[in-house]
Amino acid sequence: MVAPMTEDTIVIITDDVTLPIEEGVRGWNDEVRARLALKEVELNVTDLERKMSSFLQMVSRLFQQAEQQVTSRSGLQLDEVELSVEIGGKGEIKLVAGGEVSGKGAIKLKFRRSNV
User: Fold this and answer.
1) What's the rounded Cα separation, in Å, for the pair 80 and 17?
2) What are the CA-CA distances from residue 73 to residues 56, 63, 85 (Å)?
3) Is the separation of the CB atoms in 4 and 40 below 8 Å?
4) Most exposed: 13, 104, 109, 116, by fewest CB within 10 Å?
């Protein structure tokens, strides 16, 4: 069990746990063991803020480049971006590719162009 949170930490529940595979056991048991392999992890909020800030800066650069190319070629403007993000057991920030990830709890970040 994780110690009580301090002001500078946050507890996340993760499935970043490696389970031993039993020889000859296959099928639904793997799925059940994966569900039971949840672990509470205490993360430093300052480190998490730094990693999220860095992640968002990189994503911003990617979309600025994409918008410049689209605008110069077609006159279209990027109006909204929605990302799904996961926080790993070691505090890593992960972009979730594709639509929904079954059985996963992702954070949705939705960015909309402001009317300037």
Assistant:
1) 35
2) 26, 15, 30
3) no
4) 116
Angstrom distance (rounded) from CA 94 to CA 84: 9
What six digits make up the tokens of 102?
Answer: 């079954």
Q: Is 65 helix (H, G, I), strand (E, B) or coil?
A: helix
pTM given for the model: 0.67
Q: Read off the amino acid at residue 104.
A: K
28, two tokens? 């639904």
User: What is the residue-level pLDDT of the chain in tens, covering all 116 positions?
Assistant: 555 555 799 998 887 655 555 666 555 565 555 556 778 889 999 999 999 999 999 999 998 888 888 888 888 888 888 899 999 888 999 998 875 555 567 888 888 888 75
